[in-house]
Amino acid sequence: MNRITTLFNIKYPIIQAGMVWVSGYKLASAVSNAGGLGLLGAGSMYPEVLREHIQKCKKATSKPFGVNIPMLYPNIEEIMKIIVEEKVQIVFTSAGNPMTWTSYLKENGITVVHVVSSSKFALRAQEAGVDAIVAEGFEAGGHNGREETTTFTLIPMVKEQIKIPIIAAGGIANGNGMLAAMVLGADGVQVGSRFAASVESSAHDNFKQVILNTKEGETQLTLKELTPVRLIKNKFFEDIQELYKKCPTKEDLSQLLGRARAKKGIFEGDLTEGELEIGQVAGLIHDIKTAETIIADMMQEYQRAQKEVADFLF
Fold first, then answer.
1. Architecture of the domain defined by 3-203+282-312
2. Can you spell out the DSSP letters for 18-69?
3. What is the pTM of this model?
């Protein structure tokens, strides 16, 4: 019996990451309908927009789905109120202290998962009472841990420390990666970049196409003085590197970043001045598929990889 499928009452232990400007109700409901767990990405939604997406997701699927909430969100109290009012059953929290909201959510009957980048934070999340954790290696796209611990190293280290279920994230886009994560100690996987390049993703077509064109070595973690983020190396990225040559202050970096850079790049499709967040695994993504096909392909690859590994044993 798999602890993640049991916890969420889903068919496959595949969770779609709640990515900004990508994870609206169309993607979340499609993933849930295909047997995974879809997540709405609250990080790019005003409170009432989130409410609208929750309501639309309920109409689009009868299966479980959840909401990913970065706790640095300025309207966090209003967001949490909407989560309870709309009877959301599953919440993934990130970018903050799990002690802050876990008790409140669990008192309202909500299953809580927290995203971490180290064993230290995994232990804190367990102590806070979360039901599971996402252990995310620095291969992942978007905002990331400062530790730069890879998924391959992070999962077994976290497994040594905690007893609650572990969801592996970072660098997983196919069934082979899923099997590797499970062998290392994960109970399930969270997949971001592969779903960003899906039919149902709310990202701009320009951004989806640039994912397909991104090759090995063409992303990098940067802006660690603010919030570390993995970006495709476009003009905006090169502007950051030029600024670093001048030993910038945090204020200098914040001024260059400005507002709504991720929206400009991911949602509006500005490939020059936008912030293009994607994982290292983009080099393995070569086509745009439906969420249903992505999950079906992953499970077929996973099962095939299991058999191939069995043949290696001696």
1. Alpha-Beta Barrel (3.20)
2. --TTT--HHHHHHHHHTTSBEEEEGGG--HHHHHHHHHHHHHH-SS-EEEEE
3. 0.96
